[in-house]
Amino acid sequence: MTVGKDVSALFPDVVNCMQTDNLELKKLVYLYLMNYAKSQPDMAIMAVNTFVKDCEDPNPLIRALAVRTMGCIRVDKITEYLCEPLRKCLKDEDPYVRKTAAVCVAKLHDINAQLVEDQGFLDTLKDLISDSNPMVVANAVAALSEIAESHPSSNLLDLNPQSINKLLTALNECTEWGQIFILDCLANYTPKDDREAQSICERVTPRLSHANSAVVLSAVKVLMKFMEMLSKDLDYYGTLLKKLAPPLVTLLSAEPELQYVALRNINLIVQKRPEILKHEMKVFFVKYNDPIYVKLEKLDIMIRLASQANIAQVLAELKEYATEVDVDFVRKAVRAIGRCAIKVEQSAERCVSTLLDLIQTKVNYVVQEAIVVIKDIFRKYPNKYESVIATLCENLDSLDEPEARAAMIWIVGEYAERIDNADELLESFLEGFHDESTQVQLQLLTAIVKLFLKKPTETQELVQQVLSLATQDSDNPDLRDRGYIYWRLLSTDPVAAKEVVLAEKPLISEETDLIEPTLLDELICYIGTLASVYHKPPSAFVEGGRGVVHKSLPPRTASSESTESPETAPAGAPSGEQPDVIPTQGDLLGDLLNLDLGPPVSGPPLATTSVQMGAVDLLGGGLDSLMGDEPEGIGGPNFVAPPAAAVPANLGASMGSGLSDLFDLTSGVGTLSGSYVVPKAVWLPAMKAKGLEISGTFTRQVGSISMDLQLTNKALQVMTDFAIQFNRNSFGLAPAAPLQVHAPLSPNQTVEISLPLNTVGSVMKMEPLNNLQVAVKNNIDVFYFSTLYPLHILFVEDGKMEAVSSRLQGSNIFTVAKRNVEAQDMLYQSLKLTNGIWVLAELRIQPGNPSFTVRLPAPALPALGCLLPCAGQPLLPSLLPRAGVSLMGALAQLGWGPSEPDVNEHQNSEPSFQLSPIRLPR
Amino acid sequence: VDAFRVNVIHARQQVRSPVTNIARTSFFHVKRSNIWLAAVTKQNVNAAMVFEFLYKMCDVMTAYFGKISEENIKNNFVLIYELLDEILDFGYPQNSETGALKTFITQQGIKSQHQTKEEQSQITSQVTGQIGWRREGIKYRRNELFLDVLESVNLLMSPQGQVLSAHVSGRVVMKSYLSGMPECKFGMNDKIVIEKQGKGTADETGKRSGKQSIAIDDCTFHQCVRLSKFDSERSISFIPPDGEFELMRYRTTKDIILPFRVIPLVREVGRTKLEVKVVIKSNFKPSLLAQKIEVRIPTPLNTSGVQVICMKGKAKYKASENAIVWKIKRMAGMKESQISAEIELLPTNDKKKWARPPISMNFEVPFAPSGLKVRYLKVFEPKLNYSDHDVIKWVRYIGRSGIYETRC
């Protein structure tokens, strides 16, 4: 059997051996049964008798063995017989049998959950938590946690101070594995106040010096979570921080695989609380024979910890790494030097000189990587380090990777006026134009145009050459478009062209690869587990079949609220709003981002802003529906988090308001404003647009789409001459009338404008689908922003297929059919977009179950094929009357998904944005 | 399993991560010589726990049948199944203490029949009870215990002789042959403890001990140590398992005595020649002897020939390892030794520069480089009538090199 041969034919003979007295033989027979019972369920019944008998054997080892084996046989008929012996064993006098039986309940639950509940095993299991034997307690906890995980709604492990106390006592006595189970379970508990949190922390801290690193990591998890509840000026908070550092460092002397797990977790911890490890930089220095995955992780953490104090050390190390053998590692090291320069301004100079040293080594990939990095440094500190350009130019010929070539070309174009032979350099690139990758081609095109604008006289020929190459001989639409834009720009109005092309670029921000705060908080709750290794929420890699509970850090208690520093506020407060509701990811995210938006984030790159806009749209759906008909209460920051006790009431209220919404809508069908309107969101913060703040939303009223804008002048001067234009988008949205602001906008004045839209503009697929790039012009400057429009504004009135469900009709979503399957109501919905795309959706509503599911079984067109991933997205019950919104929410979510944009992509996408502006009428 | 085999084991490039996710299934793997141990899950499990478990499993297997090799695994298939059955239940690790396991999983399998009922219940209570690592009723005629303080010094030094990072990771290994259920108390010259005591007594003792005490950055203990007691009073008390076990691990970074200094000197003479001179200095009491000294000086890949002159020991160029290996059997403290080598290089047109791996060193010294000293180890056995004085105790200090590297 163990060598892979099928020996199931011997089944009856083997079963006959079961009654032997020889323990070893018995074990082997049981092993055989576990393997083959499934293939021969009828015969397996024969074994049941012996099992039952064995469960009453005087030898506890045999009793336990029998129970254990029975749990592993996944045959329905056997399971039925299992219940009685199991019940007995759960109450066995011998702890060894009890602890085995506890795990067996979890096994049984996996086979047949209903049976476990019916037989009342869960209650028995709960009783076992107060067992006298620590190992039994640990196994009972482990089993309950596993069962609770598959039932997110049920309150199986209802922990209270008494049971927590018991667990903490057991913690001191049980084996290392048991300690892990208990600590993991403790991490799910939310203490009532900071005093309780502190006392738990005090009792958990000794675990930090356990030899088993899993115990240590689980303890760290509990502490990290509960620390959230302690106020920062408490003495204990400081000592706790101090106590956390040494164990984390010790984890690094474990075996490499564990080091990797530890490092991934430290990476999270460093992002959450950099103060813990800020003095421990040295331990993250890479050793020569570390495995590559450990090296890369260490490097990552080093960059995060880099600060003015330790930058010299770090740089010296990084330089050392840059001469190593592994190409990937070297590249990352070089990149890290650049990141240091951007992060610690004082060190920029030294970083640049280090990079130059590296370029001198002439190792091909080092040089290339260094050039890419230097480009970023130029962006961060413009006009500061041009002196190095000469050195860079020397290495022009050795560059063969597109990214490095593009970076080099960008540098040449940007500093064209300072490089005497810029035209020659660019010309040399131009020779092989068609063999280059698109990235290089685009960059080259832009660089030459820049050059032309700076030195118009000498480079006329060059520009014409490149424009013709880009527009006539190229198959790439991006390249062609950009070429045409420049061409037209240059031929009509060179001055405007200069303003657009040579416009000042936004500075790049320093920390671009941080994990999103919500995700980070969630991951902190998963320290030690796979989620923290992948840096993904569990839902991203666990089979969808099981409901996954979203965990969130506990809010700070009211007493400490006042002392909380602004940076932790967004982390703590919003999750407090709905601690017991299972928040969909989007909602929570929206909440958080809304808080972030309050004070506009200091100059984030544009791509990030658009993400935030999307999130706010979502928030519109989520928050609004939660609040129902109390719109006065809007605004995350002012919304005082109700204590846990008040939550059910809150939930009830939202249910009620959801219902009343339903009535509202039904009565509102006949009236004009049928469609749901997303609340206005800030699209363009004043800081980014020289004082012009634009917020707005999209509406659909009797067949026409309009964009409601609110323009606020926060500058000191009067604004006039407003104009607006859209970039091409997926549905061809375009303004149907010019933007009409009649009077000049004086400082601190706000106007509201409704701009009618049509859908006859040119079409280009955007990513995400509903992304819209908008340019607004006034007498001061031209501003660009992008936003996501809710898809339901595109749902047209004639999208109706058959029977009408008045509920959704208000949003132009129509019911095709209603069916009742397995006590679930299935609604089949249809809707049609303005460009004629039909979307069919299946809405599954289960009575008594707060969540319901939207599924898009058959995407009407390939264009919407990307919708499929959102199948099975759980939604809040209160969203029910607004299915249109939630559908849209799902769509909007698709665009950016749960993962955050990649660093490098991010940085590189920026210049390309700056290069593709839309021309505005003057 | 097949997917894992194809994607990880037979993957061309180096392993990029010990955790791989293939088709929503996560594989954890640990490699022991040429055996891969893999754990599989579809859920969000505790990754640290999985790896710890894999290591423990290796330990248990080693304890049962020695080295983990293909042949051993084939020969002990049944035993492994039996062990797995006991240490893991439905994915929950249960008990991985070899001592306890050996009481009821025996290689002969005959013993189980002769067990009386009492023995059986004793086994179960031991397995599940608080002190899972020691059984009752152990008797020795001579009560003995051995204490080994094993330290490994890790050092990373720059070519200029500047210490980039240095730390000592030490282990206290105890071998106990004690009767009954003895309660032990262990003390060492830990700074915090001594300062605490120093406050109570006169200032003079505080000063005197302050010099000898060391600051331990962090320590971890065997599960038999009562952690809560350590946290509150910093005293290490425990009931030891029978036989050999690792009592504690610790780590220090301050005031480390570096037993050796390595001073490299590399000179490139033209394109085809390289001159290397390495001096090592021992830095400890002249009365002590260091043993098994080995210095490994890496050479470039395109080395064609090496001439070595050394004052002491033997040196050889090993082409297969791309290094000059210099061995010295014994060396007293405060001495100096030197090697010089001329390396002939083949001319290559490879533009890539030689990465210059660091010079590494191995040695063994009979003292603890961190300065750790065992102050006392007391044994109390309430039931049997032997006292602390009757126990014969042995203490030994060994300092070894960990990763002891000097960049050149």
From TrEMBL, chain A:
<dbReference type="Pfam" id="PF01602">
    <property type="entry name" value="Adaptin_N"/>
</dbReference>
<comment type="similarity">
    <text>Belongs to the adaptor complexes large subunit family.</text>
</comment>
<keyword id="KW-0653">Protein transport</keyword>
<dbReference type="InterPro" id="IPR009028">
    <property type="entry name" value="Coatomer/calthrin_app_sub_C"/>
</dbReference>
<dbReference type="GO" id="GO:0006886">
    <property type="term" value="P:intracellular protein transport"/>
</dbReference>
<dbReference type="InterPro" id="IPR008152">
    <property type="entry name" value="Clathrin_a/b/g-adaptin_app_Ig"/>
</dbReference>
<dbReference type="Pfam" id="PF09066">
    <property type="entry name" value="B2-adapt-app_C"/>
</dbReference>
<feature type="compositionally biased region" description="Low complexity">
    <location>
        <begin position="554"/>
        <end position="571"/>
    </location>
</feature>
<protein>
    <submittedName>
        <fullName>Adaptor related protein complex 1 subunit beta 1</fullName>
    </submittedName>
</protein>
<feature type="region of interest" description="Disordered">
    <location>
        <begin position="899"/>
        <end position="922"/>
    </location>
</feature>
<dbReference type="InterPro" id="IPR012295">
    <property type="entry name" value="TBP_dom_sf"/>
</dbReference>
<dbReference type="Pfam" id="PF02883">
    <property type="entry name" value="Alpha_adaptinC2"/>
</dbReference>
<dbReference type="GO" id="GO:0030131">
    <property type="term" value="C:clathrin adaptor complex"/>
</dbReference>
<dbReference type="InterPro" id="IPR011989">
    <property type="entry name" value="ARM-like"/>
</dbReference>
<keyword id="KW-0472">Membrane</keyword>
<keyword id="KW-0813">Transport</keyword>
<feature type="domain" description="Beta-adaptin appendage C-terminal subdomain">
    <location>
        <begin position="795"/>
        <end position="876"/>
    </location>
</feature>
<feature type="domain" description="Clathrin adaptor alpha/beta/gamma-adaptin appendage Ig-like subdomain">
    <location>
        <begin position="676"/>
        <end position="786"/>
    </location>
</feature>
<dbReference type="InterPro" id="IPR013037">
    <property type="entry name" value="Clathrin_b-adaptin_app_Ig-like"/>
</dbReference>
<dbReference type="InterPro" id="IPR002553">
    <property type="entry name" value="Clathrin/coatomer_adapt-like_N"/>
</dbReference>
<dbReference type="GO" id="GO:0016192">
    <property type="term" value="P:vesicle-mediated transport"/>
</dbReference>
<dbReference type="InterPro" id="IPR026739">
    <property type="entry name" value="AP_beta"/>
</dbReference>
From TrEMBL, chain B:
<dbReference type="GO" id="GO:0008289">
    <property type="term" value="F:lipid binding"/>
</dbReference>
<feature type="binding site">
    <location>
        <position position="329"/>
    </location>
    <ligand>
        <name>a 1,2-diacyl-sn-glycero-3-phospho-(1D-myo-inositol-3,4,5-trisphosphate)</name>
    </ligand>
</feature>
<dbReference type="InterPro" id="IPR036168">
    <property type="entry name" value="AP2_Mu_C_sf"/>
</dbReference>
<keyword id="KW-0472">Membrane</keyword>
<dbReference type="GO" id="GO:0006886">
    <property type="term" value="P:intracellular protein transport"/>
</dbReference>
<dbReference type="GO" id="GO:0030122">
    <property type="term" value="C:AP-2 adaptor complex"/>
</dbReference>
<dbReference type="GO" id="GO:0099003">
    <property type="term" value="P:vesicle-mediated transport in synapse"/>
</dbReference>
<dbReference type="Pfam" id="PF00928">
    <property type="entry name" value="Adap_comp_sub"/>
</dbReference>
<keyword id="KW-0653">Protein transport</keyword>
<feature type="domain" description="MHD">
    <location>
        <begin position="142"/>
        <end position="407"/>
    </location>
</feature>
<dbReference type="InterPro" id="IPR018240">
    <property type="entry name" value="Clathrin_mu_CS"/>
</dbReference>
<feature type="binding site">
    <location>
        <position position="318"/>
    </location>
    <ligand>
        <name>a 1,2-diacyl-sn-glycero-3-phospho-(1D-myo-inositol-3,4,5-trisphosphate)</name>
    </ligand>
</feature>
<dbReference type="InterPro" id="IPR001392">
    <property type="entry name" value="Clathrin_mu"/>
</dbReference>
<keyword id="KW-0254">Endocytosis</keyword>
<feature type="binding site">
    <location>
        <position position="316"/>
    </location>
    <ligand>
        <name>a 1,2-diacyl-sn-glycero-3-phospho-(1D-myo-inositol-3,4,5-trisphosphate)</name>
    </ligand>
</feature>
<dbReference type="InterPro" id="IPR043532">
    <property type="entry name" value="AP2_Mu_N"/>
</dbReference>
<dbReference type="InterPro" id="IPR028565">
    <property type="entry name" value="MHD"/>
</dbReference>
<feature type="binding site">
    <location>
        <position position="327"/>
    </location>
    <ligand>
        <name>a 1,2-diacyl-sn-glycero-3-phospho-(1D-myo-inositol-3,4,5-trisphosphate)</name>
    </ligand>
</feature>
<protein>
    <recommendedName>
        <fullName>AP-2 complex subunit mu</fullName>
    </recommendedName>
</protein>
<comment type="function">
    <text>Component of the adaptor protein complex 2 (AP-2). Adaptor protein complexes function in protein transport via transport vesicles in different membrane traffic pathways. Adaptor protein complexes are vesicle coat components and appear to be involved in cargo selection and vesicle formation. AP-2 is involved in clathrin-dependent endocytosis in which cargo proteins are incorporated into vesicles surrounded by clathrin (clathrin-coated vesicles, CCVs) which are destined for fusion with the early endosome.</text>
</comment>
<dbReference type="GO" id="GO:0045202">
    <property type="term" value="C:synapse"/>
</dbReference>
<dbReference type="GO" id="GO:0031623">
    <property type="term" value="P:receptor internalization"/>
</dbReference>
